[in-house]
Amino acid sequence: xxxxxxxxxxxxxxxxxxxxxxxxxxxxxxxxxxxxxxxxxxxxxxxxxxxxxxxxxxxxxxxxxxxxxxxxxxxxxxxxxxxxxxxxxxxxxxxxxxxxxxxxxxxxxxxxxxxxxxxxxxxxxxxxxxxxxxxxxxxxxxxxxxxxxxxxxxxxxxxxxxxxxxxxxxxxxxxxxxxxxxxxxxxxxxxxxxxxxxxxxxxxxxxxxxxxxxxxxxxxxxxxxxxxxxxxxxxxxxxxxxxxxxxxx
Length: 249
Fold this sequence. Notes:
This protein has ten helices and no strands. The chain has about 250 residues and is mostly helical. About 30% of the residues are buried. It is globular.
């Protein structure tokens, strides 16, 4: 999924104003931090069913799976906070929530085969990667709006590799690690180039991105004829007689 998302944002290009011609990076934050936090907790809660339910049986392994999932998510949030301090970046709620999700993503490959301390370590490193991954993508001028490439891609790669590194009863086995690396590489190559074909065809036919006018106005007005957050649009005047024309742009 993350490989397809990476290909999509490359073909789509950054949002207007995200990167200046001089190389300056402009932040475009989300509008509702409360909903962001709530969404993160809903994902976290759902991850218990996702990981524990994947066993398809009510066995004694469920206790370990749920514990590893919880600890990894919590450690991911801690990792995101600590790395933000270390690189002298603000401790943002968005990065902390993404760090917790990155921890959950990272442990998903080895939730049933990793001992508890290594599950926490896996999540912690996943949280660190989620923050550093965003900074790396900004450096190469890739606009990943919600940090999905870092959270699901970079942290997912680490988690898949960690499942081989911290495999219970066979830790640090080079043969197992090589198998994990082959799986990661094969999956990325297949998804990345399949997405290139799919998104390339969409871009060449119906188009992959809205017009500049639609992006500037916002799709609430151009698609639905009204403004979702009028309190933030005091300087924008949308007259009824121009609405039909605007929707056709």
